[in-house]
Design goal:
Number of domains: 3
Mean pLDDT: 81
Number of helices: 10
Number of strands: 13
Order of helices and strands: HEHHHEEHHEHEEEEEEHEEHEH
Strand order of the largest sheet: 8-7-6-5-9
Distance between the termini: 61 Å
Largest sheet: 5 strands, antiparallel
Oligomer: single chain
Strand content: 15-25%
Length: about 350
């Protein structure tokens, strides 16, 4: 229950005040990375590649005996800083040959590092002490976002609610979340009764490892006993579960990076591949401001379209995302994946043609 009391403490601070400054992180490592990135991006006397930024951040982390981070982490930091509420703007034209260089478009810009008052800070630090025990869990990820808003010095009195969260009250399975989170945190083996789509219910014993949200749906990542690989179980397909008295086996998966190479939650075997996609102007702005994937890069841009590349493991979620853009998105390469998407479109087209013939024949 400690996590819930800690969460309530932070949330109380949040709803009692309102935003008065730019959101900044409270997590020590994240804050340090942002400080280093801010310093590098403001430096007019040196040009930084993505590898240079990674080296600078790792140098700062080593100085305080904190673990180093990967290029993916810095790419994610930059993409997050580009979006709301940070909204930094980079000089996208800055290059050294084919290498992209990173610098603020406005050299005078800096990330503001406001602080909360002492009383608020004491309350937050007490809450963080408890919450950090759950780092890596989705609840902590959500709370970290909230803490970012609190830490920036952000909130003042006389408030009305300033944040609205997307919620689907009809989504099944959410009542499982707290107990699954507790089972993961306390390392308990579970017996699940699970109903796959269009199949009979199955019962299996699993080691629960992680909870992840994607597209307004929660998923349990767990390894069935007797199997080598993890399964993905939507919470709305879990009928019931209970603890079983079996020894728990930890996972060797680093869930902080496990989903880095995919869109969504399905992680296929194999290595990620480069996929090149043409996006027409009607959707180009949306795709630039909300990338398909962390690895997204703009290769070509003109008045009619952009060409982007992503480095991912193709899965069902990526296919669905591409198809959701309709005629505004076209896979250019590799040819095998272009043909895969093309077959999906042909099947859809044939279905609509057949349905139209049936409708007219009635």
């Amino acid at each position: 229950m400690a996590i819930y009391f800690a969460f309530r403490s932070v949330f109380t601070i949040f709803v009692t005040y309102k935003l008065r400054a730019t959101v900044m992180p409270v997590d020590k490592q994240v804050l340090l990375r942002y400080q280093v990135l801010n310093k590098c991006l403001r430096n007019l006397h040196r040009e930084y590649t993505i590898d240079d930024l990674v080296n600078e951040c790792n140098k700062a982390l080593r100085a305080i005996d904190m673990p180093e981070i990967s290029k993916r982490t810095i790419q994610y930091d930059i993409e997050r800083l580009k979006g709301a509420p940070y909204n930094i703007r980079l000089n996208e034209k800055l290059k050294r040959g084919k290498q992209k260089l990173f610098r603020y478009k406005d050299a005078d810009y800096t990330l503001p590092l406001f602080q909360v008052n002492d009383e608020e800070r004491n309350k937050i630090e007490d809450a963080i002490y408890v919450l950090k025990r759950f780092e890596g869990e989705p609840l902590f990820d959500w709370v970290r976002t909230l803490l970012m808003e609190v830490e920036g010095g952000l909130l003042n009195e006389e408030t009305s609610p300033v944040v609205t969260f997307q919620n689907n009250p009809d989504l099944k399975g959410l009542h499982h979340f707290n107990e699954l989170l507790a089972a993961i945190s306390t390392k308990r083996v579970l017996k699940l009764q699970y109903i796959p789509f269009e199949k009979d219910a199955i019962t299996l014993n699993v080691y629960p490892y992680h909870l992840k949200q994607y597209n307004d749906r929660w998923y349990l990542i767990a390894r069935p006993i007797g199997f080598e690989h993890c399964g993905i179980y939507p919470l709305d397909r879990i009928e019931e579960f209970h603890e079983v008295a079996l020894p728990y086996k930890d996972s060797d998966i680093d869930f902080e990076e496990y989903f880095d190479d995919v869109v969504g939650v399905t992680v296929p075997d194999g290595e990620p591949i480069d996929i090149t996609i043409k996006v027409l102007k009607d959707s180009a702005g949306f795709v630039v401001t909300k990338p398909l994937h962390l690895s997204q890069r703009v290769l070509e841009r003109n008045d009619d379209y952009i060409v982007i590349s992503i480095n991912v493991k193709p899965n069902y979620e990526l296919c669905s995302k591409i198809l959701s853009f309709g005629p505004n998105m076209e896979v250019l390469s590799p040819e095998s994946y272009r043909m895969h998407i093309g077959e999906k479109i042909k099947a859809m087209n044939q279905k609509y043609l057949n349905n139209a013939e049936n409708l007219h024949s009635k």
